[in-house]
Fold this sequence. Notes:
The protein has 248 residues and is α/β, with parallel strands linked by helices. It has helices at residues 4-9, 11-14, 21-29, 35-47, 84-87, 95-106, 144-161, 171-183, 221-224, 231-244, and strands at residues 72-75, 127-130, 165-169, 200-204, 210-216. It has a single domain, classed as Uracil-DNA Glycosylase, subunit E. The protein has a five-stranded mixed β-sheet with strand order 2-1-3-5-4, sandwiched between helices. A hairpin with a 5-residue loop joins strand 4 (200-204) and strand 5.
Amino acid sequence: MTSPRSRASDLPGRASAARSIAELDHLVTGCRACPRLVAWRERVAAEKRASFADETYWGRAVPGFGPSTARILVVGLAPAAHGANRTGRMFTGDRSGDFLFAALYRAGLASQPGSVSIDDGLQLAEVRITAPVHCAPPDNKPTPQERDTCRPFLQRDLELVRPRVVVTLGGFGWQTLLSSLQAIGWQIPRPRPVFAHGAEATINHPDGRSLTVLGCYHVSQQNTFTGRLTPPMIDEVLERAKALAELG
């Protein structure tokens, strides 16, 4: 008889059979496929940061956030240890999320400019946020094996949402996205598109569909506090995404 723990480690392999985003998100939250990530996310949730000592951490894999009909998909890197790993929602409860949601609000894609908890009433319009890796990794650095293990979730997200535009936050998201698209039948141009802030690549599917991938520096404090990524820079990327998605 298969144990619940072993079934939980098999969940990425079942992603392709998910019939809806709700079903996919349910698979994500139950996943225990990567021992190092499971151990780290649960250790962080148990030890906590002193400023959040009275809170109950999520401590599980974090699903995507946003409607299944979104025309724009935003792909980050992985949940933050004391951000999404605490709150249970992508980019919620940390400085990176503050920067991202403020930008989405300015673009008319979010109902409010901040994101502090999973029940704060924030809603997204025509945009969904996900990540190549759904568990918080030590030092914010998932291994290639962890990335590849988690990739079926991103592949199925792409198949179910069918976005017109994908905004990748950083080179990790860019590279994983292209590999994910290729794995589900999309034709990646040659030479292979290279990540840069403001980079733009059109990807075609044999069935006639196409989507545009846009590059944006990650909204990490390392980038936003140093001025490498400024509000006008991300605003320009999001306005381009809206135009390509025909959102006016």
